[in-house]
């Protein structure tokens, strides 16, 4: 949806948001303005402010908001912390579910700041040997996919996310100076990672918000685009791009900092990384974190007023309360230090929801077996992931923005509540029905449609429609039932589609066997035909497989992919027709 908007437009938006972010940080240090909006009387303009302190509490100390049995001092306060935690953060969550990762990544100020070293040309360089010339050359480092961080970055990011929320409860919730320092330190980390590594390494491997983006985007957002259905070479979603100096036209600037890149095709990354280490921890643990974080306000204070009134946003002496009593349950203080109580609450609920999610996967598969239907482990995981995401979304907005939303007029608040329910329901309905096989069919459909253009199709079959007007299912049905499409022609078309999948869709040769399984069944080709097509392409387009040969052989050993005996004579039986580009 937003991938067609120019990088120049988004560049301006990022600058505006970044400047606004720095102004907010500055207001955390000095703010003589918003403190006037919290006065218990009307503000200086004569208009009532929704943020003003409740006069009944302000003037009558007996009606105070309490932490256990202690009243919180109610004095006019600057709104910086409340604006950040109860307006900006919830807005980001809403944007992710509705407009998707592709929109958020292109406007995110933190992602923008991480690219400053590249824009200034000051990135760290390392010396490598050029594989073609054999001479040493300088290049910016990237994080290797098979490195420890490349494999386990979800654990790192989720751990940073947990530490960030713990720091919020301990210090930065109500201390404006500490919150300013926290945000500045985060920006500095993003810039430093951008100096160390190329591409969007901060976003992919370090950013604590990345797991949240992963959860709320799912295979696709409510209004997100479908990159896999676009023509090869199209700039998709939030992929890295730059303007050509001569033509000023935008072009891709991908440096391959991550395979199955979330910025190029979010749904492909979703299906490819279902089994990635830490993926279940992120999805199931996130719901546990949402509940644990907001529940702790109650467990600490003994009441919900402490959270919903926003009193935590101007609590006094938060720095000295790290060893305060951590739990106050049923009117009794439990002598566990606050910093231990926070991590204990997080650990229990994260573990409980991870176990619950894994158990639900097994129960869902067992239920489908009892119904006589076989469901893959990946599809069961997707169904439970989707359920956890929508519960997380509704749970978040049951608490997340309430210190601000609850101050709005009742009719406006009712409308916002209805919008949250509607958006979540629409996203869930749209997502529950997705499957990896459906994604693969849609991804290959464009190539299959192009191959069918070379086949003579009777007019009565198309019923006056063109191939472009046929749906994905109709294209596959047509490919399966055409009587005049010979085996030789099918094999030639399959070889062209295989080349397309490897070249433009970045599917590894080893993965192409399973990726095109449904297509082979549709085109009535055998598994051995897949390897004949590979041999044919190796003969006619020798450069196609150069970078894939070793990985194909390794995957063949690991996955027991069946092999066939090839010969040059076999390959020559497939007439070669260069595909028009």
Features:
membrane, mainly alpha, Putative signal transduction protein with EFhand domain, two-stranded antiparallel ribbon, transmembrane helix, 581 residues, plasmid, globular, 3 domains
Whole-number total of structural domains: 3
Return Rg in Å.
28 Å
Regions with little confidence, pLDDT below 50 for 5+ residues: 547-568
Helical fraction? 55-70%
User: Alpha-carbon distance between the termini?
Assistant: 26 Å
What is the count of DSSP helices, taking H or I runs of 4+ residues? Answer: 26
| Number of E-state strands | 8
Please list the strands of the largest sheet in the order they lie side by side: 1-2
Largest sheet: 2 strands, antiparallel
Shape: globular
Question: What integer is the average pLDDT?
Answer: 86
Q: What is the structural class?
A: mainly alpha
Strand content: 5-15%
Protein name: Putative signal transduction protein with EFhand domain
Organism: Leptolyngbya boryana NIES-2135
Transmembrane segments: 12-30, 82-104, 154-171, 177-197, 281-299, 339-360, 380-399, 411-433
Keywords: Membrane, Plasmid, Transmembrane, Transmembrane helix
Structure description:
β7 and β8 (332-337) form a beta hairpin. The protein is globular. It has 26 helices and eight strands. It has three domains: 7-243, no CATH class; 279-432, no CATH class; 436-572, no CATH class. Mean pLDDT is 86; it is low at 547-568. It has 581 residues and is mainly α. The strands form four sheets. Strands 1-2 form a two-stranded antiparallel sheet. It has a two-stranded antiparallel sheet with strand order 3-4. A two-stranded antiparallel ribbon has the order 5-6. Helices cover 57% and strands 5% of the residues. α12 crosses α14 (338-370) and α18 crosses α21. The chain starts with 6 loop residues before the first helix and ends in a 9-residue tail after the last helix.
């Amino acid at each position: 949806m937003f991938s067609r908007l120019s990088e120049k437009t988004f560049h301006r938006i990022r600058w505006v948001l970044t400047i606004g972010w720095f102004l907010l940080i500055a207001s955390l240090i000095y703010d003589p303005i918003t403190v006037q909006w919290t006065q218990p009387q009307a503000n200086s303009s004569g208009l009532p402010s929704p943020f003003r302190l409740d006069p009944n509490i302000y003037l009558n100390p007996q009606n105070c908001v309490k932490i256990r049995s202690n009243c919180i001092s109610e004095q006019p306060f600057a709104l910086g912390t409340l604006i950040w935690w109860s307006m900006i953060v919830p807005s980001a969550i809403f944007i992710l579910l509705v407009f998707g990762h592709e929109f958020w990544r292109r406007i995110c100020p933190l992602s923008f700041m991480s690219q400053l070293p590249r824009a200034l040309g000051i990135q760290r360089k390392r010396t490598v040997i050029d594989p073609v010339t054999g001479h040493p050359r300088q290049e910016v480092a990237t994080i290797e996919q098979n490195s420890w961080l490349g494999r386990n970055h979800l654990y790192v990011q989720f751990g940073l996310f947990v530490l960030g929320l713990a720091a919020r409860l301990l210090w930065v919730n109500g201390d404006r100076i500490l919150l300013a320092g926290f945000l500045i330190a985060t920006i500095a980390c993003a810039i430093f990672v951008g100096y160390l590594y190329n591409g969007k390494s901060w976003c992919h491997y370090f950013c604590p918000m990345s797991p949240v983006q992963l959860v709320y985007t799912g295979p696709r957002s409510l209004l997100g685009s479908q990159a896999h259905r676009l023509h090869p070479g199209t700039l998709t979603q939030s992929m890295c791009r730059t303007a050509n100096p001569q033509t000023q036209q935008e072009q891709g600037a991908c440096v391959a900092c991550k395979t199955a890149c979330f910025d190029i095709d979010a749904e492909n990354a979703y299906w490819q990384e279902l089994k990635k280490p830490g993926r279940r921890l992120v999805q199931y643990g996130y719901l546990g974190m949402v509940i644990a974080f907001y529940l702790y306000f109650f467990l600490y204070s003994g009441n919900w007023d402490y959270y919903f009134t926003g009193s935590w946003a101007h609590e006094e002496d938060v720095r000295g309360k790290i060893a305060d009593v951590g739990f106050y349950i049923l009117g009794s203080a439990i002598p566990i230090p606050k910093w231990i109580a926070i991590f204990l609450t997080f650990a229990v609920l994260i573990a409980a929801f991870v176990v619950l999610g894994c158990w639900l996967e097994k129960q869902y598969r067992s239920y489908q077996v009892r119904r006589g239907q076989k469901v893959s482990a990946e599809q069961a995981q997707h169904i439970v992931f989707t359920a956890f995401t929508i519960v997380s979304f509704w749970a978040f907005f049951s608490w997340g923005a309430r210190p601000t939303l609850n101050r709005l007029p009742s009719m406006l608040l009712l409308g916002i509540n209805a919008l949250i329910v509607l958006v979540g329901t629409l996203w869930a309905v749209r997502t529950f029905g997705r499957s990896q096989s459906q994604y693969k069919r849609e991804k290959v459909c464009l190539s299959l449609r192009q191959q069918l253009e070379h086949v003579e199709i009777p007019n009565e079959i198309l019923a006056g429609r063109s191939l472009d007007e046929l749906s994905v299912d109709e294209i596959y049905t047509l490919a399966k039932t055409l009587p005049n499409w010979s085996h030789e022609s099918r094999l030639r078309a399959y070889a062209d589609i295989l080349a397309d999948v490897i070249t433009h869709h970045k599917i590894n040769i080893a993965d192409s066997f399973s990726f095109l399984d449904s297509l082979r069944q549709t085109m009535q080709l055998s598994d051995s035909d897949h390897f004949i097509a590979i041999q044919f392409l190796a003969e006619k387009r020798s450069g196609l497989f150069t970078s894939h040969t070793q990985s194909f052989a390794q995957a063949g050993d690991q996955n027991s992919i069946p092999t066939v005996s090839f010969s040059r004579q076999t390959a020559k039986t497939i007439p070669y027709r260069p595909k028009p580009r």
